[in-house]
């Protein structure tokens, strides 16, 4: 599979030294000087492994007289020998020209105009080469905030200019069906060989233009198992707070890519080590720093997510967010019940509300996910209550399965003493007689009756006058 490409990779020394020169940040000026072309017989990207629809788009653009390349993750992943999941095309045709060539297409985005060409369920994203920004374009085509944040980028350019406006060198490899070669203007082939993720250009400027590139660095490092080049890595710790400028809806999308692409545990570690997780989930980060069980719970949830994806089983953002934020809910519930003397159910509900509204300032959580997330949390208080009809109501709750999985997760992480999970496992499988027995074991206080309450108890300050009864709390 690697035949052609590895042949190239095994002898990069001499030839590449002259092409790339010393390891340097690439600038607009040196882009064309750096060009290397990997001919068809020296790489493993074959039309057989590429999307037919993407190829159709390339051919049609070419026959209308435009240049067109496949670029980005699809070429990077193909060269690495894995199956690409989506296909991005770059061309010198403007969005309007692309739109006219494909009936099945529409222009999306205003700040970054791109064209989606639809073939049934597959969408091919077609982007016009981005060019250099200059004052003559005014604020109409490109716009940058005082902090360097790129607000709009619709300045068209050449393919070389397009290459250096991309994020990482390994994401800037271009494949054309006019010569079937790979074109590299940024040193991407060399970095791919060395398994290094390197930002193109001056890292600080590039992060300021778009702080999400820091999250992308973490995601690709985790997904590809690449090292982040030192000059790309070092500024992240200091610049991480720039992520606070990014709209919560975009960060939500990035979080899904980070944690629902099969490399969640590794992504989480890379993010935490660099202070990026704290910018996405500040409250969760604080609790994780204080409670080892919370780290175990989150890592276990992410590991389960990775396993499910590897087995092609469904995963939901609701469960993911439920796990990431649960330690905050627990912490706040204790505080609320203590400060407001509330019973555990309303205390947890108030805590959940507070946690969600604080989190929404950082990442959005669409209602269709936050509602089931809350139900998973609420059910954690129902699962230990196994008397009378309540147990059947819990079992029939539409979110029972997720809540039960969540309970097992909490036990696995050592937040709870094991027992309750096993009781529910057995109860679900039992016939009527056995179910009755299990229910009576709860009444008689059999060991199967795990309390389902946090292991560690906190001494509770009693502020109430002695003659007033103390309401039940999490600690009772
Ligand atoms: P994958 O699809 O596997 O997540 P990808 O590299 O294709 O990875 P996309 O988000 O699909 O990532 O983006 C396609 C390409 O667009 C990237 O490879 C990169 O060249 C460019 N790109 C995407 N986002 C940015 C960004 N924020 N800054 C600069 N270039 C970007
Ligand atoms: Mg892609």
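^ Assign residues to that structure.
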């Amino acid at each position: 599979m690697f035949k052609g490409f590895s042949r190239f990779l095994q002898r990069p020394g001499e030839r590449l030294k002259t092409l790339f020169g010393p390891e340097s940040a690439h600038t607009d000026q040196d882009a064309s000087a750096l060009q290397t072309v990997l001919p068809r017989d020296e790489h493993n990207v074959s039309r057989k492994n590429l999307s037919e629809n993407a190829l159709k788009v390339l051919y049609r653009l070419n026959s209308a007289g435009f240049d067109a390349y496949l670029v980005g993750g699809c070429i990077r992943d193909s060269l690495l020998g894995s199956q690409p999941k989506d296909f991005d095309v770059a061309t010198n045709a403007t969005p309007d020209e692309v739109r006219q060539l494909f009936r099945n297409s529409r222009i999306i985005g205003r700040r970054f105009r791109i064209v989606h060409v639809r073939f049934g369920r597959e969408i091919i994203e077609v982007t016009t080469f981005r060019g250099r920004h200059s004052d003559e374009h005014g604020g109409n085509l490109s716009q940058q905030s005082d902090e360097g944040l790129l607000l709009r980028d619709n300045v068209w350019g050449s393919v070389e200019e397009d290459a250096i406006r991309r994020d990482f060198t390994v994401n800037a490899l271009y494949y054309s069906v006019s010569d079937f070669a790979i074109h590299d203007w940024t040193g991407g082939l060399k970095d791919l060989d060395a398994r290094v993720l390197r930002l193109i250009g001056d890292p600080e400027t590039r992060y300021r233009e778009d702080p999400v590139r820091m999250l992308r660095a973490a995601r690709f490092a985790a997904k590809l198992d690449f090292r982040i080049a030192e000059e790309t890595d070092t500024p992240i710790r200091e610049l991480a707070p720039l992520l606070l400028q990014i709209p919560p809806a975009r960060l939500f999308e990035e979080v899904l890519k980070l944690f629902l692409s099969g490399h969640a545990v590794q992504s989480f570690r890379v993010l935490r080590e660099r202070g990026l997780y704290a910018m996405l989930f500040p409250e969760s980060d604080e609790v994780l720093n204080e409670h080892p069980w919370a780290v175990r719970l989150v890592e276990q949830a992410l590991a389960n997510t990775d396993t499910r994806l590897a087995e092609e089983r469904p995963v939901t953002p609701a469960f993911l967010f439920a796990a990431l934020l649960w330690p905050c809910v627990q912490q706040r519930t204790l505080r609320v019940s203590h400060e407001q003397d509330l019973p555990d159910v309303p205390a947890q509900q108030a805590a959940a509300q507070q946690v969600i509204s604080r989190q929404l300032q950082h990442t959005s959580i669409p209602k269709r996910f936050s509602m089931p997330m809350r139900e998973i949390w609420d059910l954690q208080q129902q699962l230990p209550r196994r008397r009378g009809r309540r147990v059947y109501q819990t079992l029939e709750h539409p979110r029972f399965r997720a809540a039960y999985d969540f309970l097992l997760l909490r036990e696995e992480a050592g937040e709870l003493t094991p027992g309750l999970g096993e009781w529910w496992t057995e109860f679900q499988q039992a016939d009527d007689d056995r179910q009755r027995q299990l229910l009576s074991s709860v009444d008689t206080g059999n060991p199967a009756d795990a309390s389902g309450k946090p292991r560690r108890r906190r001494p509770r300050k009693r502020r109430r006058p002695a003659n007033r009864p103390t309401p039940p709390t999490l600690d009772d």
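The pocket of adenosine-5'-triphosphate (ligand 1) is lined by residues 72-73, 86, 88, 166-167, 171-172, 210, 212-213 (CB under 6 Å).
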